Amino acid sequence: MSQALTVDQIMQTGAVIPVLVIDRAADAAPMASALVKGGVKVLEVTLRTEAAIDAIREMTTVEGAIVGAGTVLNARQLDRAVEAGARFIVSPGLTEGLAKAAEHAGVPLLAGVATAADIMRGLDLGLMRFKFFPAETSGGAPALKAFAGPFGAVKFCPTGGISLANAMSYFALSNVVCVGGSWMTPKDAVEAGDWGRIETLAREAAALRG
After folding, report:
1. What pLDDT, in 10s, does the model give residues 119-132?
2. How many separate domains does the chain show?
């Protein structure tokens, strides 16, 4: 049994959390190995494909990988992901049902917020760490900077439209701990099994936070 981690530990471990859409479970372990070798240990497998649950199981066999499930929309999906070995849960939004299910399962939840009202609802549910999503179309770094005033103790992982080119504008903010992005695993590299390229992209991403 893997040691339980807090949401803070997860966010602080990964400067960039890759958002992984996996079509073939056979790609999961070599992809995870390449990312971990590049210094990216926290891995979010989105539940957008039929292979996702099997991919989570495969990735949990890779030493050093901290594997979670993303695009989790309800308690049923959360339970399936946890059963497969997910150590944290990421959701595009926030509902009371999902927050309660995560609490019951004892699994860290990084729920998505986009507005002040979303954040206040999360605070009412006892949450202090959020995914800011979709980041770029919800106001980007300026919006997060504005949130720092009324929500000084809240920390974020912006995701959605984040790239190597704009990530530093987010890391410059005191309330951003990590970012989420998909650029480390380009589709053509995955299809070709070019794990060396993915390791290189991971190394660049891991160096962003310094």
Report:
1. 999 999 999 999 99
2. 1
Decide if 21 is inside a domain.
yes
The burial class, CB within 10 Å (0-12 / 13-18 / 19+), for 53 is: buried
Residue 10 exposed, middle or buried by CB count within 10 Å (0-12, 13-18, 19+): buried
Look at residue 1 and tell me if it is in a domain. Answer: no
Whether 155 is a known active-site residue: answer no
Which of 44, 58, 136, 199 is labelled catalytic? 44
Active site residue 187: no
Q: Is 121 part of any domain?
A: yes
Residue pLDDT, tens place only, 62-74: 999 999 999 999 9
Catalytic residue of the set 41, 58, 131, 199: 131
What value does the mean pLDDT take over residues 43-50? 98
| CATH classification at residue 29 | 3.20.20.70
Residue 13 belongs to domain spanning: 7-206
